[in-house]
Sequence to fold (583 residues):
Amino acid sequence: MDAHSRGQADEIDPADQWVLNPQTGNYELRLNHSAGQPQRQSPAQSRPRGATPPAPRSAEGARSGQRSRTTGAPAEAPVPGQRRRRAPEGPAGGVPQQGRRKRKTAKSRKKKVLLWTGGTMAFVLVGGAVGAYAYYDHLNGNINKVDVVGAQSTGFKKDQAINILLIGTDKRTGDGNEGYGDKNSPGHADTTILFHVSKDRTNATAMSIPRDLKTEIPECQTKMPDGKIKTIPGQSDERFNVSLGQSDRDPGCTMRTVKELTGLTVDHFMMADFNAVKELTTAVGGVKVCLVKPVKDKDSKLNLPAGESVIQGEQALAFVRTRHSFGNESDLDRIKVQQQFLSSMIRQMKSDETLTSPSKLLDLAEAATKALTVDSGIGSIGKLKSLGEELAKIDTKNITFTTLPVIDNPAEKIKATVVPDPTKAPQLFAMLQSDTSLTEVKQKQQDAKNAQAALLKGTRSTAREVRVDVFNGSGIQGAAQSTINWLQNEQGVTRSTNKSNAPEKAAKTTLTYAPNQAAQARKLADMMGLPATALKPDTQDAEALAPMTLILGADFKGAGVPITGPAKAPEGAQTADKKVCAQ
Fold:
């Protein structure tokens, strides 16, 4: 008898007889097929323990009903499971009836459905044993939907990349959350992750956006409770977190802000409040976390020893909200801890311990759908299930967490906000736009260095020794001048010259150099992230002080943006399969 089977000893948990068929990958109901004919069951006997009789189908009835005393889930509709049977009774004379009707098992749903939720974040696998349509319909009723005006797509295509915005709001909703967040605030975008799923579904990048990032918030429209559309003016040089909640901004405004910032169209959003992390971690039985040193934080109330702990509920929420006990007590260090927590949550959700437990999956389905607010484009169990089936293809070792590269706001004497790093942020945006996997970047970086080293042997020049003429063959207006500005102002290549447009457009960027300019070529190639294929050596030495020739091609993505994607993975990037201790 497990934790769900509190009561009389002869009671049987409904989930105990749901077993995984390794041949089909589905959960199936295992019954003891005796020869006797069981006595006709009463409705009370055929329902799972704690469930109330199904009410007549109506909009109101679908959302009412008694809750189970163990899971808290509404129980007005039967959940698939074992039905208790009395001892068989035959007709007069004690002769058993011959034969029996074979019961049909409820049709299983696909085993894996991934649901992302925000709040202080959780990545949830649900599905499996949700076989009864009534319960399936009940889960639909749990989901809150928002009609964002012109921001989200109508769905997703299996041959295209997907961008999902995960938003955690600090709005004080739910029991026990009165002391969190701002007392009278409609909520901010307190925790935000742009989750980019690759076109081929082999990898994903989860990029955290700091809440104190100064950025442009564009004009947006939002649908008010009375159905009218309100246009909200944009704001310049504003904190990112006010893109939600303030001035009646809805998640669609946050989606537009992210597009303005990154150049990526956001297809959908998922949002949750403080309750999400408490309910989801409890449903899964806790999440493993690791600390380098013991923490007793008076603000968040986190109290954990050094080493590994399993946390859920209030302690899980405290863990992801703690700021002053980790790193340098900044929001950026709290983001790292949240990413570590989320990675652990993913590993727990994808473990056999979760996938082979129908009762745990049902608890997760209930908790996840209650925690979610989504756009109407994915606002049903069916649509979320389809999305989940796409996400389930990704191995945890190919899910990379990173943070938008930032620097301290140079306009502030007392540093309170950050701005995008002018060099590293565009590089990461270009990687996402080109659907480049961060997990492959390190290998590509090493391959490029090996090829470059084989071609260019010897020492490197200093930046001041590099001489280069830059031609624009990319078709992008101003590309040569922006590259000159970057070379001179940020790299110290003062002997670089804008030679305007190339004689014709070029498909690829090339650097032509003489044998006696190889050291300069090595230095410039390192700066610009040029692959070995871009290097074109001449056969004769150049005259003294002669420049090399750089022609920007159609593969040019921006000044300072490496031609083959980022020269290296962003600092601090980590994959979901790695266990990291908070410090």
The first helix runs from residue 43 to 46. Residues 400 and 575 are 4 Å apart (CA to CA). The longest strand covers residues 189-197. The chain is about 25% helix and 20% strand.
